[in-house]
Specification:
alpha/beta, globular, ten-stranded mixed sheet
Length: 354
């Protein structure tokens, strides 16, 4: 039976170039762009394909998207197409671009803050960065830019979440996304860890905040890698498996399409310089790891789980980065409480098990 879903949300990587070399960067982004990155006209041509595929949201990422000199034109073009546009930035260029962002009509700008001053600067490998980012957030909010904060949670910063929450509330942040760190790229080589103990602490923190602070000014948004199927799972809609290739996909700055931009390039499904997005999306062999899933695909961490057919092994990136396999996510609120010894998962990656 032909696949009938649409990519409601698309991650659009404007450039791989970045002005930081963070310890936990899954893309190992540096100051360099990808070879032969898309031109502005090519980006426009790709965006023009979105309405026919019922795309509702485009998330601009990098590298650092604010390094792309024509990002305002991309936002304007998407706005004309009627597509909600959001951006994820490390915040270095936030202050100087605050007015442009305010004028662009962008829906949300997600700014990375990975702990208090010393911790954030350590993870991001730049002294004095924290103060600059906080100042940029204050400037952006004062100009009417809708700012959210994204925190990549790991063993280094888990103890600072309460203090960071207080700071964000003082800044007037309304939305805060908590994302367990992926052991990919530099995060793997720099040994930025996420133990199962830390992961459970994250779940308890989110649960307690949602339970005790329903009227809080700040809204917690657990990422896809936070779950599943226990009282610690606070997502509004029950988890139904990884959405990569089901209701979302990513486009790299050189035109490759994959189910999620956080997945390695071995998951590329095609290039938009060679085929249009409709043909890639509806290719009968595309995104087989999610579209053709059966419980036989479950790995050893998930194969005996009563929720296996629903959960499908959790977040694909969390599973692959931790174990080298799909449908095998070891970070799971249903699974971990039954373990007796906390461990940290850092396994050599293998060829994708599709």
């Amino acid at each position: 039976m032909p696949f009938e879903g649409f990519p409601i949300i698309i991650g659009l990587e404007l450039t791989l170039a970045c002005n930081l070399q963070c310890k936990h960067c899954a893309s190992s982004a540096t100051g360099k762009t990808r070879p032969k990155e898309l031109s502005l006209q090519e980006i426009f041509a790709i965006c023009d394909q979105f309405p026919d595929l019922f795309v509702q949201e485009a998330d601009l990422t990098g590298g650092e998207p604010l390094l792309h000199p024509e990002w305002p034109e991309v936002v304007e073009h998407l706005f004309k197409l009627g597509i909600d546009t959001r951006m994820v930035t490390n915040g270095i260029l936030l202050k100087e671009n605050a007015q442009k962002l305010a004028d662009s009509g962008i829906k949300t700008v997600g700014v990375s803050l990975d702990g208090l001053e010393e911790t954030h600067d350590y993870i991001r490998k730049k002294s004095g960065l924290f103060g600059s980012i906080v100042s940029g957030i204050e400037t952006a909010i004062s100009k009417g830019v809708p700012v959210a904060v994204i925190t990549a949670v790991n063993d280094i910063n888990i103890a600072q979440l309460h203090a960071l929450q207080s700071l964000l509330q003082e800044l007037g942040i309304k939305h805060w996304q908590l994302q367990p760190i992926f052991s990919l790229g530099r995060a793997k080589s720099e040994a930025i860890n996420l133990s199962d103990k830390t992961y459970l602490e994250l779940g308890k923190y989110i649960r307690d905040l949602k339970t005790n602070c329903n009227n809080s000014a700040i809204s917690i948004m657990p990422a896809d890698g936070v779950g599943y199927f226990t009282g610690l799972d606070t997502r509004e809609r029950s988890w139904k498996g990884c959405p990569a290739g089901i209701s979302s996909c990513g486009i790299t700055s050189d035109g490759h399409v994959k189910g999620c931009l956080s997945l390695p390039n071995t998951f590329n499904e095609g290039n938009l310089r060679e085929r249009d997005l409709w043909n890639i999306w509806f290719d009968e062999n595309a995104f087989a790891y999610t579209r053709k899933f059966t419980t036989l695909n479950l790995g050893e961490n998930c194969q005996d789980c009563i929720y296996g057919d629903q959960c499908k092994g959790g977040c694909s990136v969390m599973s692959y980065s931790a174990t080298g396999k799909l449908h095998n996510n070891p970070y799971c609120f249903h699974r971990l409480p039954n373990k007796t010894t906390p461990t940290t998962f850092h396994t050599k990656l293998s060829t994708p098990n599709l």
